[in-house]
Amino acid sequence: MHPFAIFTVGLSLLAMPFLSAPTQPGQLGQDPVKANRFIGANQCKNCHKGQDKGNAYDHWMETPHAKAFETLATDKAKEVAKKAGIDDPQKSEKCLKCHVTAYGVDKKELKATFKAEHGVQCETCHGPGENHQKKRFAEASKKGAEPSPITPDEMRSERKAEDCEKCHNSESPTFKEFHFKDRMKDIEHLDPRKKRTEEEIKKLRESGEKPKEEGK
User: Fold this and answer.
1) Cβ atoms 89, 77 nearer than 8 A
2) Tens of pLDDT along 29-73?
3) How far is CA 215 from the centre of its chain?
4) Which residues contact 72 (CB under 8 A, 6 or more apart)?
5) Any idea of the CA torsion for 112, 117, 119, 121, to the nearest 10 degrees?
6) In Å, how far are 3, 22, 161, 170 from 148, measured between CA atoms?
7) What beta strand segments (E) does 21-180 contain?
8) In CA terms, which of 60, 95, 105, 210 is 20 to 30 Å from 121?
9) Among residues 62, 48, 18, 67, which one has the least CA distance to residue 187?
10) 192 falls in which pLDDT band (50, 70, 90)?
């Protein structure tokens, strides 16, 4: 579901916590760009499935993010939820805000193709995909046209540790120490259609992480 570098930001990062962290409803996967709706991961696979395209969709399907909503129905999740005073994790805002994309956003921001039960999807990290889909389909219809660079009004393509830390933090009852670079290695899915030099890839992999505090 993503541009030619896409999915680099990577859907938060592996092992989504069983319950949620301190985001507000709708914060996970929300984007300031207006007139841009969430389309769902199933729409992304139209262009991001297959080895020649970086295999981003299939790679996502193998991560815990794709099963983040299903996870809430497991005995382990219910046990954790019970300790937090939650009867049904799949219905609790405390859990859903970090286990589904676009939780709490106005329904007008969701296209009919978007299915929340698909868990933590591409748009959690990349923002709503409607503008991206429209732009790339339009370009594809022009024979011989080279893909244009991704712009902020289209979608997010940069890596940011704070996007992941909205849910991967100590307020999650199943939190484990979070190392941004290590997690990014697990979910990275660069699109081979965008040619990069070794230096560009190195710079990309060094981006997004917060500067270490002095003495650490």
Assistant:
1) yes
2) 544 445 799 999 999 998 999 888 888 999 999 999 999 999 999
3) 32
4) 18, 81, 89, 90, 95, 96, 99
5) -10
6) 10, 36, 26, 40
7) none
8) 210
9) 62
10) low
